[in-house]
Amino acid sequence: MILGLIFLLPFAVALNGDAVLQATPQLVGGLGWSILMVSVIANALLFTMQKRDPLWASTWLLLALVFSYLQAALMLGEPIGAFDVIGSALVVAGLIVSGTIDLRRVAVAPAQRPPPR
């Protein structure tokens, strides 16, 4: 991250000019959310899933975009457009085709389901 800061700092200074960063509650909350949820917890979940099955984890990673716009809609009031719905349907269809989502297991009653791998 330090290398990213070093490389991006000249661009930030050139594009912002004399603007001064003001720490608002929205900035602090957004930065805290990004640090805690996106970096720490998301990576911990990804590493846990990779221990189970790396291929399984990488296919589920595709759902990150779907969860991102759903979160933006719920927390920020962003509209969900037709392209969002179509894209989500394509991602879920891809997960079904890849075998990550087994429709036969989903359709079976919970008492009859075999234990997870």
End-to-end separation in angstroms reads 36 Å
Structural class estimated from helices and strands = mainly alpha
Major sheet size, sense and barrel closure: none
Please tell me how large the radius of gyration is: 20 Å
Mean pLDDT: 79
Low-confidence spans: pLDDT under 50, at least 5 residues?
none
List the domain count as a whole number: 1
Q: Which percent range describes the beta-strand content?
A: under 5%
SSE sequence, one letter per element: HHHHHH
Helix content: over 70%
Shape: elongated
How many helical elements?
Answer: 6
Count the beta strands.
0
In terms of topology, how is this protein built?
Blueprint: H1 2-16, H2 25-52, H3 54-60, H4 64-76, H5 82-98, H6 103-107
Short synopsis of the structure:
This protein is an all-alpha fold and 117 residues long.
